């Protein structure tokens, strides 16, 4: 289909699943700060007045229980939860972190192989300045604008939990406008959905290009009529349950692996990042208008077991030639990926909200997979 409507979702930093992602990644960062070679697999669960952290760790400098407890509370405080049922000061915490299985460690220690088997995808499209699917690009931008102002104290009527959907119309595979927007945003007692809609509308219009707004009749705000009770009080949260929000909004397949809580020996994370890096550089170089990549790995083995690339009939050269170029330019072993993208730094908590892709590269190495430093080399290789 060249003409279609596609919808993607984003969620707020106070969504219960995202609370868990932030806590898990904050713990990963704390381990990497002390030991860049640390290996982590952290799972967090939140329920009313309780946070549970489980998982496996291998590190020369383990965190003590008091440090982890403080990380949990700091995350909840920064998000803004001070409800009687979920308050950063009084929430009960439980931590159970075990040593990484020696059967997993042996494959990593001996040959720097992958920390698990897995199937990972990367994608880029010439739709907007971030080369991301437009519905997800808008959804993340809207939630991020709301989140920044709420945390700065400029939106006292709103509370931390929320989610949104943007439905975008495509003509000849190019986005041209929105057909519907859904926003379910937690609010304080005593205001109506219409009042919440009035608060949100300027943020929608700030998100969209001129003329793209679907109209008031198709902007649905808190469709049940009320969203006062939210967060862990209303829904259990779990790490790694927003994998489509974290990636490409459903525009391409997903291999099933989550990111948060994992260090970069886990190819669920590192190979997904390098796949985005390759796809984005291909599109930015002008070699294709769209690009989907798939990598697969076997636990304990260093090289990918497969490499798939599809430019969706928009490529200037055959896909097999692009694969050859990329494999010649890049070391796609887990060690090579970590070195290329500097993934042993504590840069992960910031990725836990508003998507891992389509973000700005940061000076300390954050979002390094969004760099376009492969563009010139790809062009040179092609011309040479």
Read across the widest sheet, the strand sequence of neighbours is 1-8-9-10
Report the strand count: 13
Strand content: 15-25%
Mean pLDDT: 95
Low-confidence stretches: none
Q: Strand-and-helix sequence, N→C?
A: EHEEHEEEHEHEEHEEHHEEHHH
The major pleated sheet works out as:
4 strands, mixed
Shape: flat
Number of helices: 10
Report helical residue fraction. 25-40%
Provide structural commentary.
With 384 residues, the protein is α+β, with helices and mostly antiparallel strands. The chain is 33% helix and 24% strand. The chain has helices at 16-34, 65-79, 102-111, 134-151, 193-207, 243-246, 267-284, 319-329, 334-341, 375-383, and strands at residues 4-11, 39-47, 50-58, 82-83, 86-87, 92-99, 118-125, 158-171, 174-187, 219-221, 237-238, 290-297, 306-310. A hairpin with a 2-residue loop joins strand 2 (39-47) and strand 3 (50-58). Helix 4 (134-151) packs across helix 5 (193-207). It is flat, with a radius of gyration of 21 Å. The mean pLDDT is 95.
């Amino acid at each position: 289909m060249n003409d279609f409507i596609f919808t993607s979702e984003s969620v707020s930093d106070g969504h219960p699943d995202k609370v868990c992602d932030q806590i898990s990644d904050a713990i990963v960062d704390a381990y990497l700060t002390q030991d860049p070679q640390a290996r982590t697999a952290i799972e967090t669960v939140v329920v009313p007045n309780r946070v549970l952290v489980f998982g496996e760790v291998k590190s020369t400098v383990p965190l003590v229980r008091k440090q982890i407890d403080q990380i949990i509370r700091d995350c909840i405080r920064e998000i803004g939860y001070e409800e009687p049922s979920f308050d950063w000061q009084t929430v009960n915490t439980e931590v159970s972190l075990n040593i990484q299985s020696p059967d997993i460690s042996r494959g990593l220690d001996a040959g720097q192989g992958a920390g698990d088997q897995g199937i990972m995808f990367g994608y880029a499209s010439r739709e907007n300045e971030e080369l991301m699917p437009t519905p997800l690009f808008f959804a993340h931008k809207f939630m991020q604008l709301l989140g920044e102002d709420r945390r700065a104290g400029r939106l006292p009527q709103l509370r931390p939990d929320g989610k949104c959907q943007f439905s975008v119309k495509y003509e000849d595979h190019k986005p041209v406008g929105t057909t519907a927007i859904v926003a379910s945003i937690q609010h304080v007692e005593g205001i109506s959905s219409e009042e919440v809609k009035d608060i949100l509308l300027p943020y929608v219009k700030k998100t969209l290009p001129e003329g793209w707004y679907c109209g008031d009749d198709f902007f649905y705000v808190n469709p049940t009529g009320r969203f006062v009770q939210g967060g862990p009080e209303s829904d259990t949260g779990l790490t790694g349950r927003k994998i489509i929000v974290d990636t490409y909004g459903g525009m391409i397949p997903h291999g099933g692996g989550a990111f948060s809580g994992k260090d970069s020996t886990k190819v669920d994370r590192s190979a997904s990042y390098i796949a985005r890096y390759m796809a984005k550089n291909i599109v930015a170089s002008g070699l294709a208008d769209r690009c989907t990549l798939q990598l697969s790995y076997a636990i304990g083995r260093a090289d990918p077991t497969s490499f798939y690339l599809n430019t969706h009939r928009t490529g200037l050269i055959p896909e097999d030639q692009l694969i050859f170029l990329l494999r010649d330019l890049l070391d796609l072993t887990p060690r090579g990926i970590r070195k290329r993208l500097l993934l042993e730094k504590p840069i992960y908590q910031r990725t836990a909200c508003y998507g891992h892709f389509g973000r700005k590269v940061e000076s300390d190495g954050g979002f390094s997979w969004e760099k376009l430093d492969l563009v010139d080399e790809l062009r040179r290789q092609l011309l040479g």
